[in-house]
Automatic annotation (TrEMBL):
Record family assignment: Belongs to the eukaryotic mitochondrial porin (TC 1.B.8.1) family.
Protein's cellular compartments: Membrane
CDD domains recorded: Porin3_VDAC
Top-rank taxon: Eukaryota
Originating organism: Zingiber officinale (Ginger)
Pfam families assigned to the protein according to its UniProt record, in alphabetical order: Porin_3
Record-linked InterPro entries: Porin_Euk (IPR001925), Porin_Euk/Tom40 (IPR027246)
Keywords: Ion transport, Membrane, Porin, Transmembrane, Transmembrane beta strand, Transport
Full protein name: Uncharacterized protein
Keyword Transport belongs to the record: yes
Length: 275
């Protein structure tokens, strides 16, 4: 299905380039799968002196996907995704126990020239979120809003436009009830889009502050990619990601403040092993 995609996809390419896979934790995850459609995943995370873990299983049958995770604090997260109940739709139900008020129901409708998404909290005082986009595969106009049914007030509203071409992605989003504007541009240097550069400008009107971030990624070889980012406040981040075997990734990342070198840099290490 081609089309404008969901509102959350506007600006996602730039956001992923600047934030995805950067971490200050030490994480090990191991996945396995069976011919019956069951996938098992276990992960351990160390952040400073604190350690946590979670175990999950995923089962897929025809147009239904069931995902269950249990973490070290005895929280049980369950997500059920059903595609095609109605043409071009996807239904997502989720809950995190023992918090019974955390349940959500999301319905997505994806068409060639439009998309809609609605999220309803499954509790006594539900929050409702709606978003929609119009356009085609190369351009999308969209908006989203959140509404509190108890107070009768909007919790958020945003609007944006995105342009997508094989060689670049550009977007402008007005969010935080009109207080913040984010503009981004990504240029790809190859067809695989593994070598790219990105510029993002974030303007907060209420505090008269601009944040300018530049970054990019470069494929050293078919298995190794490096990424870097730097903003006007002197925060520098770098990342190296290597495919140690098919689908299994080793990621090393770090961040430090170039204007305060006495501060301790942040380093992260993640190893994801998949079959």
């Amino acid at each position: 299905m081609t089309g404008p995609g969901l509102f959350s996809n506007i600006g996602k390419t730039a956001k992923d380039l600047l934030t995805k896979d950067y971490t200050s934790d030490q994480k090990l995850s191991v996945s396995s799968s069976s011919i019956t459609g069951v996938a098992l995943t276990s992960a351990a995370v160390r952040n400073g002196g604190l350690c946590s873990f979670d175990v999950g299983s995923q089962y897929k049958y025809k147009n239904t996907l069931i995902d269950v995770k249990v973490d070290s604090e005895s929280n049980i997260s369950t997500t059920v995704v059903i595609s095609g109940i109605l043409p071009s739709t996807k239904t997502i139900a989720s809950i995190k126990l023992p918090d019974y008020n955390s349940g959500k129901l999301e319905v997505q409708y994806l068409h060639h020239h439009a998309s809609l998404a609605s999220v309803v909290a499954l509790n006594k005082s539900p929050l409702i979120e709606l978003s929609g986009t119009m356009g085609s595969q190369g351009i999308a106009f969209g908006a989203e809003a959140g509404f509190d049914t108890v107070s009768g007030a909007f919790t958020k509203y945003s609007a944006g436009i995105g342009l997508t071409k094989p060689e670049y992605n550009a977007s402008v989003i007005l969010m935080d009830k009109g207080d913040t504007m984010r503009a981004s541009y990504v240029h790809h240097f190859d067809e695989s889009q593994r070598s790219s550069t990105v510029l993002e400008i974030l303007r907060r009107f209420s505090i008269n502050e601009n944040t300018v971030t530049v970054g990019g990624q470069y494929a050293l070889d078919p298995w190794t990619t490096v990424k870097a980012r730097l903003n006007n406040f002197g925060k520098l981040g770098a990342l190296l990601q290597h495919e140690v075997r098919p689908k299994s990734m080793l990621t090393i990342s770090g961040e430090f403040d170039t204007k305060a070198l006495e501060r301790t840099p942040k380093f992260g290490l993640a190893l994801a092993l998949k079959p």
